[in-house]
Task: structure prediction
Amino acid sequence: MLPVHLQSESHIPLYIQLRDQLRSLVYAGDLRSGDRIPASRELAGQLGIHRTTVANAYAELESEGLIEGHVGRGTFICGIPEKRFSPPPRSNGNGGATRWESLFADERADEGLSRLMPDVPPDAIAFTVVRPPEEFFPVEEFRRCANSALGREGRRILSLGSTDGYEPLRQELAGWFRSEGQNVRPEQLLITDGCQQAIDLVCKAFLRPGDAVALENPAYPGAVAIFSAARTRMLAVPVGTDPEGTGQTGLDIAALEIVLMQNRVKFIFVTPDYHNPTGTALPLAGRRRLLELASRFQVPVIEDSIYARLHLRGTAMPSLKSLDTSGNVIQIDSFSKVAFPGLRVGWCIGAESAIERLRSVKQSTDLHTDQLSQAALAEFMRRGYLTRHLVRMKKIYRARLQAMEEALERHMPEPATWTRPGGGMSVWVTLPPGFDAGELLIHARERGIYFLQGRLFYFQQPRPNTLRLGFASLDEKRIARGIQIFCDILKAEMRKRERGSRSEVSARVAVV
Result:
């Protein structure tokens, strides 16, 4: 039996205690590479805890590369991950080299966002990706735009530029906003290195350690990582996924109001359009109510609009920024989902005083966003390429979303449910109660199917029976095939559980 001792009275969740103790056993050498550890059901019985608690701990350790599960064989220790720093050179008598790892300012996890981008075999069907498919990148058009920009003003582009952003790009974006019914003055716009930097700038400009931020749970892990590194208090607000057709989707506004009443909140962070990971959208009434609460409690809103332009069906909702009449919303957005994620170009829109503060912080961070990327994108927009590309890609995404939904309707067993997004790049699946997506993933990988466990997106109270399926980067045939295999695996696991339940009942009857 493993030397593990859990404290049920501790404020630390049991699965975290178990994870940490097993990790310590590996690093101490008590568990070595190749050692087999008990199955989740067996260890749960030994410790007197629920099986999903063990499954959660195992999933965390597997994501760290410490253990690996094999269908039919069990779960084994992989040993301490190979990522190690080279030892410092031997001292020459003058003190020797610095051990840099001893100077790290915090203990943030090594994996960062890498858990969202697992290594996948080239022939596998990977539902893990939520970004534009590379095969549709208009490379030739973009090359012409880059060459044109360099030929026209190459010396200016290759010199230092304005922190506000490359002026022709700012003008193109302002025109794009006007076409959508939103007037943005130059002093209200800041070019950033994508949404990730925009969130980081907000933290640096406005948040101190201990400040409270209300955000969706589950949430985009990139935002969670930034808020966590800034040592803020993250207050979880649940997200409605509408499994019963009630229309309650997106951020739970009633729960948000309670959070605002009970806490001194500095910011609300929300993705109202095609939220990652659930794909849900906040209804118009919910948007208006959110802005009312923000005004009433004097709490500004950070609106992540990165998926908003990937509207695929139904009625498009106005953004929070377009509905805001009090100047309480900072909207962040990017070209990453509508065009090229590798260019790392995005923007912030907000009140002049807020944008000026963000500009000052950005200037001390990186001076300005890459000018060649900005100039090429400005030309790409000016020639109408972006508009045509977006129309084309939305047609492709619409067909792929439809293929996924048809496959789920055809093959998914009850009582599993899934969201029905009107856009974006992902679908959120809720497995039957008691099932664990991490355990299902072990079986799925054996069949060449990859997805992301829902627990990766929760920063509080993870739900192990959830998972995210991305549809944007797979063609319709691979989507249909992958969903069929996935559902076959789930059905097989449901049959095993049903047989196990019948056996337990029979055993009880025999005893009686």
In short: The mean pLDDT is 90. The chain has 15 helices and 17 strands.
